Amino acid sequence: MQFYSTNRQSSQASLEEAVMTGLPADGGLYMPERIPLIPRAFFNNIAEMSIRDIAYVVASTMLGDDIDAAELKDIVYNTFTFDIPLRKISSDISVLELFHGPTLAFKDIGSRFLARIISHYSRNLDKPVNVLVATSGDSGGAVASGFHRVPGVRVFVLYPERGLSAKQRHQFTSLGDNVIPIEVLGTFDDCQRLVKEAFVDQDLRRKLNITSANSINICRLLPQMFYYFYAYSQLLSGQPDRIDSDGVVFSVPCGNLGNLTAGLLARKMGLPVKRFVVANNSNDSFTRFVRTGHFTPARPHHSIACAMDVGNPSNLSRITDMYNAAPAPISSDMKAYSYSDDEIADSIADLYRSHGYIADPHAATAYRALAEDLKDGENGIFLATAHPAKFADIVGRITGTEIKNPQQDSTGCISVRHDVPKITPALQALKKILITST
C-alpha cells in the first residue's frame, strides 16, 4: 500500500515512510492510495468473531502487503489485551465503551497499535526515534503508556497549560524514563501547530528521527476502524433481525476528528453505516462546517468536555479529501450538533436518571446528539471515549455518586513527580528541548 499527501505536493510513501516520518514534507496528511473493500462474506460470520479476529482481518486487508502476516497478527493481538463491550441503553440505543484499556481512554487502542508498528520499523535504525504528540486530554496518557520504556524511542508530550484534568496530566507527567512532558503556554491548537511545524523544519529533521503519535500519523488512526466493525458485530449478535439493511447510526464525540475519520474509512471498506452523528461541545467549528459547507477555524475555549476543545481540527483535511472537497455529500452522510456545558451536564444527569448509566462528558455529548437525531426503526451507537473516573469531580457532582477509579494503581494519584518544562508556543523553544534531550 502506498500513501499520498492530502496536499498532493509530495511523492507517495510506503507504509514505513508514512509511519516513521509522520507527516509528508508538504505539510499535508497521509492517506492510503486506495481503500480496499472487505469481502461481503466477512459479514456473514462477524457476529461470532472476537475483537482480535475482526481487527486482524481489517488490518491485513489494509496493510497485509506491507507487514508479514504472522507479525501483523502478533501486533494486533498484543494491542487488544482488553475488551470493548457494547452495552444496551434502550431498545434502539447502545454505547460502545472504549475506555477499558490501561489509561481508561479510547486512544489506548491506536497508541498501542502504533507503538508496536514503530517498534517493528525502528529495529534497524542507528538513531533513536523521537515521537511527538499533542494532547487535549487523553492522547498524552495513552501514547505515554503505549511507548513507555520501548527501546530506542523517546516520547515528547505537548499539552496546553489549561484544560486537562489532574488525572490526565498525571498519566504522562509521572512516568519519566523515555517520556518527556512539555507544557505549552497556550491552547491545544498551539501544541498541534508546533508538532506540525517541527515536521516541516528541515534542520530538525536532519538532526533527529521524528514522527508523530497523534491521529495525524496514519497508523494511529487506522486501528480506530477496528472497533467500529466490532461494535456492529456485537449489535448483530444481540438482535440480528432488527438491524436495518442500510446499517447503523454512529454518534461520535468530535475534537481533532480522528475518530470520525476512522469511522468514515470503515464505511468505505464496507461496514454498513447509515450515517454519522457529529457531537461537538461549544467549540463548534466543525458542526458549522457540516451544516454550511464553509469552515472557519476558531480559537478554542475551555469546556467540561475538554478533549473536544479544538477549533482547527487537523483531520478535517482527510475528511474533505475523501469527499473531494464537496460539501453536499458530507452534509448528507453526517448530521452535526453542538452543546453548551449546561446541556452536556443535563445529558450526564439524564443518562444516569433515566437509564442508570454513568457517562463522562464526551460520551454524554454523543448520547444527546444521537437521541436527538435517531429516527424510528433505526439502531444507534454512541462512543464512550473515556471512563467517567477521569472526570470524577464533574460527573460525581452531577450524578450525586462517588465515581471510583477501576484501576488501583498510580493512575489514582494526582501528584506530578517530575519537573515539567514550560515553553511559549514557538518552534524555537520546542527545538531547543528536542535537541538538548537527545
Structure in words:
- By secondary structure, the protein is α/β, with parallel strands linked by helices.
- The protein folds into 2 domains: 175 residues, Rossmann fold (3-Layer(aba) Sandwich); 202 residues, Rossmann fold, CATH 3.40.50.1100.
- The chain is built from 18 helices and 14 strands.
- The strands form 3 sheets. It has a 6-stranded mixed beta sheet, with helices on both faces. It has a 5-stranded parallel beta sheet with strand order 9-6-7-8-14.
- Helix 11 links the parallel strand 10 and strand 11.
- Helix 10 packs across helix 11.
- It is globular and about 60 Å long.
- It starts with a strand and ends with a helix.
- About 2% of the residues have low confidence.
Keywords:
six-stranded mixed sheet; Rossmann fold; Thr_synth_N; Thr_synthase-like; lyase; 438 residues; alpha/beta
